[in-house]
């Protein structure tokens, strides 16, 4: 076997075949690597690997077509067929030589993640998971090509058969989905699908099921090749009758092992067979979700309104994997896919809305909750194309919230104060309250003698006119009785809100007269008034703590009054040298916030120091959460930080809501906006030239030299 391996491996590089195979693969990889990773700064090579997957349609037939077919054409296969070496060893030796050629390609590509680390943060675990998938994918295709080479002595026929077999596996999934195939034919296409397993590896999911699948393809192809050679060996030497006679039995046995092996792996729980290797843990459930599912004692069915095989985009694959995690985490969870084309009236049992493909319906007993597909993903505007693009996954947050809702006896009820020209709370933040299973209703204190008894909390959002003395008394009575109030101030109207500021002061929270401006550029974004605070690590901010997490623009400064009986939780703070611009009038402030180049300095009544921008005070059973800026909780500012302001909003509400008001669960969306690498134009040219041109051209040049030299000898 060693002799066959050495002879075969050297033969690839004594001709142009091996050089073309390695060089052409690296040319295509280098091209995609330069465009995606170097030019666009994407920190994972999965895009480049996915882009080059098609080239195997050409390179695999090129290197495999000669392995057996050339020997048969030149009539030298008789030496192999009559040699004392077993056919199995011959096949393994030749396959090992092919694999070593492919390892040369993989070895060069394996250097690329290390190169990317020179220019920024790169997840090696995610990159090498993608590379493992490409390795297994290539090895499986080489086994198919080897099998095709054993079928004929004609090189063209071998190459065409190899191409067709690989092409069938390349388009299998999309073909079945496009033509909506069902029944046994659909299963055949599903079994012979190479792209779906590869895509899982490229998306950062290490699946032992797919490892077994690729290995079983390799095993079946090698055994098929061995049996074909055995048949021909029998024709040369009748003494091999016993082996030939049992070839059919061998094929059946191997096929059975492959099928049973894959079937057994399919039954292994996802938590033991699929590992999330992504840096952001896209396919791993949050500890909050795990705790919820562990305590779940009701049966819950999650209906996905789509044909499972039709969900092929990256975000749809993430949806399927996340739902798989839910089903694996609890025996009470069942996931079912409903094909709307076959069952068009199914959704009408639960909603009158027309649900788009991929929407979810979560059902438990007689209760249900519908999750439109648009709520499962966060989107933002791509200003290069002025189109919407998916920027985050909120699948887990929505599904866990729905399960929590179905498991809850009562829902929280949050009243939004009205009657003071309050702006409308943006839809994103209303949905954030719904996500934590809180109902909302307007509350005008002119029409109510007191805060309603079913109020879990009251939201005072950016009032433009002051509260009356009577309003304040009702709020104070509510808080003293154990109520919860969330206040977000508008700095433009702050000086005129005398009663509201007095209410906050009586609750232990003092406010500055003017807006906070930062003097430390590490604490602001573009303008000194667009504040990037340090979010403290607390139970109310655990999902967004740290720096550069949230943005709080045009904010009033908050501080503790220090009165006895109050307990505080500081949520977000400025830098040490922030200035409260108390000397500014409203007109001055309006002009200042529009001038991003304005120099900030302390003047007149201004004060300087570190201020809170978010603060919770507690006295007895009453809680007040205050933020210096209502602008922080708007869609425009939320998009600047990829939805983390919404997470802060939800987290604080989840924390202050009383437990007896109903279950609430807030799980933040997972951002898919990767931190891009900073690569200079010079570096792009150097490394792009090295990977895409220099190495491939050097290999091909070496091949030409070797071939010319051998011909002249």
Can you walk through the features of this model?
The protein has 713 residues and is α+β, with helices and mostly antiparallel strands. The protein has 3 domains: 2-276 and 680-712, no CATH class; 287-376, 3-Layer(aba) Sandwich (Glutaredoxin), CATH 3.40.30; 410-671, Rossmann fold, CATH 3.40.50. 48% of the residues lie in helices and 17% in strands. Strands 10-9-11-12-23-22-19-16 form an 8-stranded mixed beta sheet. The longest helix is centred in the C-terminal third of the chain and has 32 residues, at 681-712. Residues 236-246 have low confidence and may be disordered.
SSE inventory with pairings:
Elements: H1 2-13, H2 17-39, H3 46-52, H4 56-64, H5 69-73, H6 77-81, H7 87-109, H8 112-116, H9 124-149, H10 155-178, H11 183-191, H12 195-202, E1 205-207, H13 208-236, H14 241-245, H15 247-267, H16 270-273, E2 274-276, H17 287-295, E3 300-304, H18 314-329, E4 333-337, E5 360-364, E6 367-371, E7 377-382, E8 387-393, H19 395-407, E9 412-418, H20 427-435, E10 438-444, E11 457-461, H21 469-480, E12 484-488, H22 498-506, E13 509-517, E14 524-525, E15 527-531, E16 534-535, E17 552-553, E18 556-560, E19 567-573, E20 578-581, H23 586-593, E21 607-609, E22 612-619, E23 622-627, H24 635-640, H25 644-656, E24 670-671, H26 681-712
Parallel strand pairs: 3-4, 9-10, 9-11, 11-12, 12-23
Antiparallel strand pairs: 1-2, 3-5, 5-6, 7-8, 8-24, 13-18, 13-20, 14-15, 15-17, 16-19, 19-22, 20-21, 22-23
Helix pairs in contact: 1-7, 2-3, 2-4, 2-7, 2-26, 4-9, 4-10, 7-9, 7-13, 9-10, 9-12, 9-13, 13-15, 20-25
């Amino acid at each position: 076997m060693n002799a066959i391996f050495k002879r075969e491996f050297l033969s690839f590089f004594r001709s142009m075949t091996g050089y073309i195979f390695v060089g052409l693969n690296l040319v295509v990889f280098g091209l995609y690597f330069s465009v995606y990773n170097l030019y666009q700064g994407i920190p994972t090579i999965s895009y480049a690997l996915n882009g080059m997957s098609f080239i195997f349609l050409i390179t695999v037939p090129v290197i495999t077509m000669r392995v057996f077919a050339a020997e048969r054409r030149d009539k030298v296969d008789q030496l192999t067929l009559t040699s004392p070496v077993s056919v199995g060893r011959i096949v393994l030796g030749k396959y090992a030589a092919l694999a070593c050629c492919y390892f040369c390609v993989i070895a060069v590509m394996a250097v690329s993640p290390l190169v990317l680390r020179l220019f920024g943060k790169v997840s090696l675990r995610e990159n090498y998971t993608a590379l493992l998938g490409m390795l297994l994918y290539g090895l499986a295709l080489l086994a198919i090509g080897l099998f095709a080479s054993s079928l004929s002595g004609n090189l063209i026929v071998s190459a065409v058969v190899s191409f067709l077999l690989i092409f069938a596996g390349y388009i299998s999934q999309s073909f079945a989905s496009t033509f909506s195939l069902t029944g046994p034919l659909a299963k055949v296409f599903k079994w012979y699908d190479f792209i779906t397993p590869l895509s899982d590896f490229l998306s950062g999911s290490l699946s032992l099921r797919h490892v077994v699948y690729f290995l079983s393809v390799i095993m079946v192809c090698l055994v098929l090749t061995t049996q074909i050679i055995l048949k021909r060996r029998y024709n040369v030497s009748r003494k091999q009758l016993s082996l030939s006679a049992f070839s059919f039995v061998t094929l059946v046995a191997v096929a059975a092992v492959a099928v049973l092996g894959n079937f057994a792996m399919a039954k292994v729980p996802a938590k033991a067979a699929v590992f999330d290797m992504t840096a952001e843990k896209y396919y791993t459930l949050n500890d909050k979700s795990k705790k919820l599912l562990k305590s779940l004692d009701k049966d819950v069915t999650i209906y996905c309104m789509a044909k499972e095989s039709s969900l092929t985009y990256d975000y749809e694959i993430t949806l399927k994997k996340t739902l798989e995690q839910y089903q694996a985490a609890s025996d009470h969870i069942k996931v079912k896919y409903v094909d709307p084309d076959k069952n068009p009236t199914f959704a009408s049992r639960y909603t009158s809305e027309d649900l788009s493909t991929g929407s979810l319906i979560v059902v438990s007993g007689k209760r249900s909750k519908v999750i439109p597909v648009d709520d499962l993903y966060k989107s933002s505007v791509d200003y290069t194309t002025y189109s919407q693009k998916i920027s985050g996954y909120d699948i887990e947050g929505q599904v866990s919230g729905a399960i929590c809702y179905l498991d809850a006896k009562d829902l929280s009820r949050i009243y939004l104060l009205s009657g003071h020209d309050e702006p409308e709370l943006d839809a994103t933040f209303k949905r954030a309250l719904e996500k934590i299973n809180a109902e909302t209703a307007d509350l005008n204190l002119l029409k109510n003698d007191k805060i309603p008894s079913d109020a879990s909390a009251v939201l005072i959002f950016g009032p433009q006119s002051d509260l009356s003395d009577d309003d304040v008394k009702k709020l104070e009575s509510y808080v003293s009785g154990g109520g919860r109030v969330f206040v977000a101030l508008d700095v433009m109207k702050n000086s005129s809100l005398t009663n509201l500021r007095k209410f906050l002061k009586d609750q232990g929270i003092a406010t500055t007269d003017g807006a906070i401006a930062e003097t430390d550029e590490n604490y602001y974004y573009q303008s000194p008034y667009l504040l990037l605070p340090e979010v403290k690590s607390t139970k109310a901010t655990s999902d967004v703590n740290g720096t550069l997490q949230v943005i709080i623009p045009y904010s009033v400064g908050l501080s503790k009054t220090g009165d006895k009986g109050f307990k505080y939780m500081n949520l977000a703070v400025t830098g040490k040298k922030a200035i409260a611009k108390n000397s500014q009038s409203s007109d001055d402030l309006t002009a200042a916030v529009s001038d991003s180049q304005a120099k900030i300095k302390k003047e007149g009544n201004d004060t300087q120091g570190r201020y809170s921008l978010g603060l919770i005070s507690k006295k007895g059973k009453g809680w007040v959460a205050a933020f210096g800026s209502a602008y922080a909780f708007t869609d425009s500012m939320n998009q600047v930080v990829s939805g983390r302001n919404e997470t802060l909003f939800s987290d604080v509400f989840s924390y202050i809501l009383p437990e007896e008001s109903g279950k609430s669960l807030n799980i933040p969306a997972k951002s898919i906006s990767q931190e891009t690498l900073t690569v200079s134009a010079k570096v792009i040219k150097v490394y792009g030239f090295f990977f895409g041109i220099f190495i491939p051209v050097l290999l091909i040049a070496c091949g030409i030299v070797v071939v010319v030299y051998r011909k002249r000898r």
